[in-house]
Amino acid sequence: MEPAKKPANAKKPPIRRRDRERTRREILEIAFAEFAENGLTGGNTDAIAARANITKRLIFYYFNSKEELFIAVLEMAYAKMRLAEEGLHLEALEPEAAIRRLAEFTFDFDQANPEYIRLVTIENIHRGRHISASRKLKEMTRPIINQIAAVLDKGVRSGVIQPGIDPNELHMTLNALCFFSVANRHTFEAQFGWDMSSPKAKAQRRREIADLLWRHVRRG
């Protein structure tokens, strides 16, 4: 007896949501490594598909274009840092402890995530056009700026931090210091013969950045 035929209009069973999400996450993680190593232009969707053990068509099922995939990778990378920042709870600390904790966290995150630094550098080469296209990325910045603003306000009220410091400017100054330690390490070491890679050198730089940031904001 032949097996009963399915009706012509029978629908395929839907892919379970968790499977779709897992596949999408795997694509993003592999694409993150590919873009961080080779940039947007050099990043290869065939290589991403091969490493994910999927077809390239499936990549474009989840992401309509290579640039859309790159934006999603940026969103994932920044979200990782922003999520970690939420756990700082700077408002619960005294101002000096909060400023030092912020500096140490930022330094440690950048040191532990050099691929993130490369990805940000690549996006700057593209003049930030992909970040500009993402509302999600713009919204991610507010929580950490709000945390910094709260620390500054608390410090001003208690008389230990000088008034008039812009939280965005402070955030930029801190990121410039920490970013350089990763992004420019190879060229700086080659030019000046200066150790930036050993645990001792990193610990010293970490202390110096925390000291610099606190001296910059403190009153008197």
Question: Could you describe the 3D structure shown?
Answer:
By secondary structure, the chain is mainly α. The chain folds into two domains: 16-64, Arc Repressor Mutant, subunit A; 77-217, Orthogonal Bundle (Tetracycline Repressor, domain 2), CATH 1.10.357. The chain has twelve helices and no strands. It has helices spanning 17-42, 45-52, 56-62, 66-86, 95-112, 114-125, 129-132, 135-140, 142-158, 167-183, 185-192, 199-217. α1 packs across α4 (66-86), α5 (95-112) runs antiparallel to α9 (142-158) and α10 (167-183) runs antiparallel to α12 (199-217). The mean pLDDT is 91.
List the main descriptive attributes of the protein structure presented here.
220 residues; mainly alpha; Arc Repressor Mutant, subunit A; Tetracycline Repressor, domain 2; 2 domains; 12 helices; 74% helix; HTH_TetR; HTH-type_TetR-like_transc_reg
